[in-house]
């Protein structure tokens, strides 16, 4: 802990800032094997708050949690053709168990469509068994060459929803509902404004007919693909013979969706909201919403701090008192700023005598001195204010850095700008064109945000909707 | 679903009853690879209720959740001598990742002492950083030759707590607290009475100086080791150089504990409480506490059922209405009996007209007809009654089947009984004797339940406390 480096400026070397703030705020640490990560308590507590928000919404919709095996027979991945092409290069493979070489090797799940379809095919008989709507909270492993904490690691935590339906329409409604839920949680918990739409033919999930995505603009000008929801059509159903007897007594393949949101979202949270002094956490996902620091950590100042903490807790706030006697005030202020706690309360003699509190807002450093009672009564409104301010900040920034290009020259000019971001174009979803653009500019399509007609910015032919392009993580 | 077999009598072939009831109640299913299991929504919901009870208690004690990597370098397991002996034969090994052979193979965690000590050794500098008290909810993999759903599977879900302390005394207090917590949750949620004590030298955890255990008697007369809490001394600290500067400025090794409770506990719940008609779930862990079945699933009966359900929900009960129109009443009654729902309400014309409900208690089949208002008002007390009754039943049964043996002849006679169970003896914890007894009778020591002096039942020499012996799962 003594050897910790100083936090560099965020506006300087962003990736150095990013990896340093993760260490300093004690969000995560590097694991012992290549590309692995340890999520420390402070980082995990953020994930638990996000989990609770998602899980509550899933259950209200009738999604049930379940658990499927981590290790899957190699033969399973071969069954769905485009799925194996997408995932085979990223697999971790178990070849030995209990001291013996296995007859059939097992892969560590990178996602669970295959093993879950194997069960669906056994559990479903008739239309009366449908829909089946499952979710699991688990970790998955994908062998990555270039890794970065939270954003891209060899193992990450996520939820994966898997549903099967009697009709395509029902499956599509669930695909959309999942993305509505992600958008709700991103906007109201992560305080992140994102672009939402459909993936291009070359960017969609391996095995899906259609993929919905949320894409968040990061300060680097790159997009973070932050969650996806797939219409899997009948692709896995056909590969795994997942059939049911429909109302007319005929055998039909089920229609299927899958959708996921992972700890990658915490990477987005750090990058988008942080500043030169460290993290800035939105109150809804802050493990500590209010930190109270008595200037002298003893006697009546300490008592005042703890009583205040109790009062705030009865109002539903997550509060901590920093009354360590081995750290200076300046060190403490710095520590809690780095950790991004939304509100800091400093308690000195003046505050105790006047029945006041001095409140510093992490988001913009605004300092207030108000009566203690007023502060306690208004704590939730004050936290909501910050939450709202942060979302509006994210929205404004994203919108400012989303620029239209009418043709490829304009597109390349925008990509060359230092404050580049999202580029909005009319385009016709041609995979060959997308490959060329990527080669030239490193940008790819992120999502189709509108159906509007127009002229394709690259070919000048009729376009298929309005799209967002950007470089991506 | 149509091909489901009938439930055999529990008093007949217990293991056939066990695997059949798990399928019929839709708790779990077999996974595609050897010894793996799928936890279906109904089984997973039980686990979520147990998790909530444990997690709340952990957090109240100051335990923080975190997440450590699934895949651990092979060199790590070699560091603690007795740990490698215990776990090496059960490892699943990843040899390939991303299409290439790995330089160093990785094992899938069977438990996480090694990888967590690697982090502890980096994070701890001084006594001011102690204690560090972490927990993780995850799955672990142990290659097992003979498997059985929930009781012994190649992968299972659990929580593993890991704490480090400045003094041995503090570590021991935490080891004891963890076992207090398990006992609390077993008694008040699982409604299971168990024997608690220390493991013998040959039965303790690989790497521990002392292991506390809870052992529950199953109807087969075998014991289920249901949770353990270990005093790891400084064994891992020395292997991983986990040192800190103490108050006197000297370098010391930390003192360490670990403790875990797994989905195995659900196996115990099924075995101990079930009867010839299926599961009997204690209300505190029942995903559905009250099932309401309108005799005719339409019109005023259906409305009455749903209104009643809403009223019960406002009283905090977990309620479901079975108003499917494609299943007969008898089928429904059977289905919810198999699923072990504590209370079944049948709504007929008579109930609607009289403002009554007919309540059937799953535990003993007792049938009541009472006023609807009285039932709604008293729902929590009624559920508490059942919970209490079930625990008392478990306690009575365990105590009746716990018998004392003064010498080895008596011991062998008790082991030959058809209703054998726990055997209480005075013993001196001699590993060679334990091995001989196991060879003779298949029984091993389960735990030391008392310190009392006495005569060793095997050797006639002075004993080291009172012990429970039994066969075990």
Describe it.
- The structure is a homodimer of 473-residue chains.
- Chain A is built from 15 helices and 23 strands.
- Chain A has 473 residues and is of the alpha+beta class.
- In chain A, the strands form six sheets. A seven-stranded mixed β-sheet of chain A has the order 3-7-8-14-11-10-9, with helices on both faces.
- The mean pLDDT of chain A is 95.
- Chains A and B meet through strand 2, helix 2, strand 3, strand 4 and strand 5 of A and strand 2, helix 2, strand 3, strand 4 and strand 5 of B.
- Strand 5 (92-97) of chain A pairs antiparallel with strand 5 of chain B.
What is the element layout, followed by pairings?
Two copies of one chain form a homodimer.
Chain A: H1 14-24, E1 28-30, E2 37-39, H2 41-61, E3 64-65, E4 71-73, H3 74-77, H4 81-87, E5 92-97, E6 100-108, H5 113-123, E7 132-141, E8 155-165, H6 168-188, E9 195-198, E10 210-217, E11 223-233, H7 235-240, E12 243-245, E13 251-253, E14 255-262, H8 264-273, E15 290-294, H9 299-314, E16 319-321, H10 329-338, E17 343-347, H11 349-354, E18 356-361, E19 367-371, H12 372-377, H13 379-400, E20 402-404, H14 408-416, E21 422-426, H15 431-441, E22 444-450, E23 466-470
Parallel strand pairs in A: 3-7, 15-16, 15-17, 20-21
Antiparallel strand pairs in A: 1-2, 4-6, 5-6, 7-8, 8-14, 9-10, 10-11, 11-14, 12-13, 17-18, 18-19, 21-23, 22-23
Helix pairs in contact in A: 2-6
């Amino acid at each position: 802990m003594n050897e910790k480096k100083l936090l560099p400026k965020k506006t300087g070397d962003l990736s150095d800032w990013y990896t340093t703030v993760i260490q300093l705020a004690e969000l995560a640490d590097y694991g012992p094997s290549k590309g692995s990560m340890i999520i420390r308590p402070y980082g995990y507590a953020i994930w638990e708050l996000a989990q609770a928000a998602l899980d509550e919404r899933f259950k209200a919709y009738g999604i049930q949690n379940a658990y499927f095996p981590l290790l899957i027979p190699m033969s399973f991945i071969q069954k769905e053709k485009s799925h194996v092409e997408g995932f085979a290069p990223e697999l971790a493979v178990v070849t030995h168990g209990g001291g013996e070489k296995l007859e059939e090797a097992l892969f560590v799940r990178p996602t669970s469509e295959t093993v879950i379809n194997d069960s669906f095919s056994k559990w479903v008989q008739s239309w009366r068994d449908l829909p089946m709507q499952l979710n699991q909270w688990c970790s998955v492993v994908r062998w990555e060459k270039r890794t970065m904490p939270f954003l891209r690691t060899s193992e990450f935590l996520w939820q994966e929803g898997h549903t099967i339906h009697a009709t395509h329409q029902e499956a599509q409604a669930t695909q959309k509902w999942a993305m509505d839920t992600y958008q709700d949680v991103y906007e109201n918990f992560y305080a992140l404004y994102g672009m939402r739409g459909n993936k291009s033919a070359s960017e969609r999930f391996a095995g899906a007919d259609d993929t919905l995505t949320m894409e968040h603009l990061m300060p680097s000008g790159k997009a973070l693909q932050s969650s996806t929801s797939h219409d899997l059509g009948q692709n896995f159903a056909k590969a795994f013979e997942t059939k049911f007897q429909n109302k007319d007594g005929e055998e039909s393949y089920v229609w299927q969706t899958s959708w996921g949101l992972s700890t990658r979202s915490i990477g987005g949270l750090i990058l988008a909201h942080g500043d030169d002094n460290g993290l800035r956490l939105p109150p809804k996902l802050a493990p500590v919403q209010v930190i109270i620091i008595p200037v002298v950590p003893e006697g009546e100042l300490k008592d005042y701090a703890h009583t205040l903490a109790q009062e705030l807790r009865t109002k539903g706030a997550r509060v901590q008192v920093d009354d360590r006697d081995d750290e200076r005030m300046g060190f403490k202020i710095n520590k809690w700023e780095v950790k991004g706690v939304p509100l800091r309360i400093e308690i000195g003699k003046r505050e105790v005598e006047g029945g006041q509190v001095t409140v510093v807002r992490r988001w913009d450093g605004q300092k207030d001195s108000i009566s203690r009672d007023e502060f306690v009564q208004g704590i939730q409104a004050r936290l909501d204010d910050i939450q709202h301010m942060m979302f509006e900040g994210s929205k404004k920034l994203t919108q400012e850095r989303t620029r239209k290009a009418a043709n490829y020259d304009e597109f390349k000019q925008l990509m060359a700008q230092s404050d580049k971001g999202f580029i909005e174009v009319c385009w016709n979803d041609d995979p060959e064109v997308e490959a060329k653009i990527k080669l030239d500019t490193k940008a790819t399509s992120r999502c189709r945000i509108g159906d509007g007609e127009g002229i394709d910015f690259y070919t000048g032919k009729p376009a298929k909707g309005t799209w967002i392009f950007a470089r991506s993580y």
